[in-house]
Structures are given as structure tokens and as C-alpha cells.
Amino acid sequence: MKNYKTVYASSPEAVKKYDTQNLRDEFLIQDVMKKDELNWVYTHYDRFMVAGVVPIEKVVKLETIDALKSNFFLERRELGIINIGGSGIVKVDGKDYQLDNKEALYLGQGNKDVTFKSISSKSPAQFYLNSTPAHKAFPNKKIGKEDVEVIGLGSPETANARTLRKYIVNSIVDVCQLQMGMTSIKIGSSWNTMPAHVHDRRMEVYFYFEVPEGQAVCHFMGQPNETRHIWMGNNEAVISPPWSIHAGSGTSNYSFIWGMAGENLDYSDMDVCKINELR
Ligand SMILES: O=C[C@H](O)[C@@H](O)CC(=O)C(=O)O
Ligand SMILES: [Zn+2]
Description:
By secondary structure, the protein is mostly beta strands. Helices cover 5% and strands 44% of the residues.
């Protein structure tokens, strides 16, 4: 069974000509959360990988995929895990890490035996996973509720009041290149990442969740003077090339997990775009 899909990198010139379906085919990842199996999206953007697993009937094993040509998944990789569901256990080379709702785990290069399970199948864990190539083995680390760095951003007046939570960033955990966090939009606000930014040094993936039934998030991408949009539903992810803005406006409030990789580990390295100059 082929348990992954490859996404190639697109140039900004090519993307200018894409229609709705082309955009969705190249950047949107639907049905991220898979029941009882790991099904990866392997991107050629900094070789960033994305998956989501909801263990219900099974203990799910982290297995390598053909694209990696490695003996085991984490032979040359690091992995970030954020649980958005009920309590679950990640077992790593014999050691159990319990992740409750909105807790995270960083796994360094070299861990061999990794499994995922839920504590209760009635309220299963929902593990969201990002992985990037690694050149060094850093220690595994759980990032619990008390370890997260919380920042308030935006305001109700500009419809972008939100709470940003840093989980896997280099002030909290040593990493080779992976960065992950979570942002929740406050009730009455709709915009994330506005003013928008680019960071040509890093690619990024946004995973939208807590989007209420019947609502949607309109995600904006593209060069700042050539934007496009993708309508997104709950539990869908979107790839942001390094040359692209990444911002969204929802028909209600919602949350998303952001994950990045590339040239540096400086979270604040962003080139902010002037709102009135977006096209
Ligand atoms: O490069 C950083 C990422 O795009 C996100 O952290 C931004 C974000 O969550 C927000 O402003 O709402
Ligand atoms: Zn960004």
C-alpha cells in the first residue's frame, strides 16, 4: 500500500495561471485526520511532511515510507506532534508520553519505535504531525500546557483578535529546523495573520481545525501583489510556499496549527506586507 502522496514545489510564475482546481490540487490537503492509519503528504518544500492520525481501534505505528529510503522514519528526521483530540499516548522506544488535548511532543532524530494510541476510543486522540529532515539528534521533549509561550495579537476593531501559542520553537525546545504552534481566533474576529507576511527563508503549512459545522475559512496565498484564495473546511491543511503570503478569514472563529521549516529558527523573521498594498 502506498501510504503517502508527493507534492512538488510550484513556482510563483506557474501559480499565476492556476484555476481553482489547480490551486486546490497543488496546495490543499483534505481529510488530514485519518482513522487508524498514517497517510503522509511528502512535500518538496523543504521536504516537509504532514499527516494526522486518530487511533480508535488500533495502536498505530510510525513506519518509514519509500520516499525516505531510510531504515526507519526518524533515521534522518525530526517530528513534531500536537494532539487536538482526547488524551493519547505516544510510546517512544519503550517510554510513554501522555499528551492531553493541546499538548505537544518533539521527537528528535534516531528514535526507532514510535506508536500512537488513544486512552479512550470514545474520545480518541487526534495527533497532528509535521516532520522535517534533521542533521542532529536533539532530546525528545513533551511540551505541556504550562510550557507553551502564549501571545495575544490583533484587536476586535480590526477583526483579528487572536491568541498565539508557541509549542515547538527554539526558545522552548532544541530543534534542527521544525517550528510549530497554534493560533486561535477570538469570537467576533475572523482574520489570522493580518497584516500578512512572507518569509522567503521558510515554507509553512497551516492546518485549520475547530471550524464549526457549516462554516469555512477563506485562505489567501500568493505573492503579495498577486494573491489567490482557497476555501477551506475543518481539518484541512494548506501548504504555503516560501514566496507566498498565508492568511485567512473565517465565516466564524476557528483555530489552526502552523508548522514551518527552512533556513533559520528565528520565529520573528517575517517580512510584513502593508495591507493596502496587497493585490
Ligand atoms: O510565521 C508565522 C506564522 O505564519 C504564524 O505563526 C502566524 C499566526 O499564527 C498569526 O499571525 O495568526
Ligand atoms: Zn508565516
